Amino acid sequence: MRDPSGWTVEGRKYYCTGSLFAHRIPTMVNAEEEGRAVAYLVFIPRDAPGVTLVDDWDGFGQRITGSGSIVFDRVRVEPDWVVPFQASMDRPTAIGPFAQILHAGIDLGIGQGAFAATLPFVRDRARPWIDSGVSRAREDPLTLHALGDVRVRLAAADALLERAGRFVDAAQAEPDADSVAAASVAVAEARASSHRAGLLAANKLFELGGTSATDRAQALDRYWRNVRTHTLHDPVRWKYHWIGAYHLDGRLPPRHGAL
């Protein structure tokens, strides 16, 4: 809100990742200007008067991200804390795809970690199924097929991520409607792929490892919990929607930073 004495922020923000550890809290706010809501990004000091941090993040994954809530009670805002955000979406910029490609890397990295944990577990601890006709799980043809499938999907996601990075670089160098749209779609493709590959790798860790993989002492559930939680950051179904619309009809995706 803006009044004659300056800016104030009022409201409650949920899922504020890192807020419990931050010196400043980046907060998206809306201000009414000329009859319409205009978005700003405000970097508010955690110890500013009127800021209350609530340690209420209780997700089963991403446990130490400090993603609690924050209550803002008429927090006075200095002008140099305020960064225009709406303008970066009204005109073509690479801000959206740049932000999203980070999430693709996180999902892929967790999947790669899960796959790396699966291999020694299958070699050393997993047992073959009675119908396989082999004495060791590492010789089970269906296990080998499943491992190959996971590896291919992770490699494909990795390649799409690298490809998306080139599109983001191009959009940063020469931002216009077409280059930013191409970058957004390329990143959406990478995110859709890393989403599926990460979840698949985490699931197969248990499917191929068997019941012993659920031993709490191993803590292998951290891969599934973390990738399942992080892939909920924004819905993958809408990524497929805009990928299809772009390639079929040439429709440019929206610029809101969440594709």
TrEMBL record:
| GO cellular component labels | cytoplasm
Query: GO molecular function terms here?
Result: acyl-CoA dehydrogenase activity; oxidoreductase activity, acting on paired donors, with incorporation or reduction of molecular oxygen, reduced flavin or flavoprotein as one donor, and incorporation of one atom of oxygen
Known SUPFAM superfamilies for this protein? Answer: Acyl-CoA dehydrogenase C-terminal domain-like, Acyl-CoA dehydrogenase NM domain-like
Q: What UniProt keywords apply to this chain's record, in alphabetical order?
A: Oxidoreductase
User: Which Pfam families does the record associate with it?
Assistant: Acyl-CoA_dh_2
> Which InterPro entries does this UniProt record tie to the protein?
Acyl-CoA_dehydrogenase (IPR050741), Acyl-CoA_DH_C (IPR013107), Acyl-CoA_Oxase/DH_mid-dom_sf (IPR046373), AcylCo_DH-like_C (IPR036250), AcylCoA_DH/oxidase_NM_dom_sf (IPR009100)
- Residue limits of the Acyl-CoA dehydrogenase C-terminal domain? 102-234
Q: Which GO terms describe its biological process?
A: fatty acid beta-oxidation using acyl-CoA dehydrogenase
Task: Please name the PANTHER family in this protein's record.
Answer: FLAVIN-DEPENDENT MONOOXYGENASE, OXYGENASE SUBUNIT HSAA, MEDIUM-CHAIN SPECIFIC ACYL-COA DEHYDROGENASE, MITOCHONDRIAL-RELATED
Q: What is this protein called?
A: Acyl-CoA dehydrogenase, C-terminal domain
Q: Which organism is it from?
A: Methylobacterium pseudosasicola
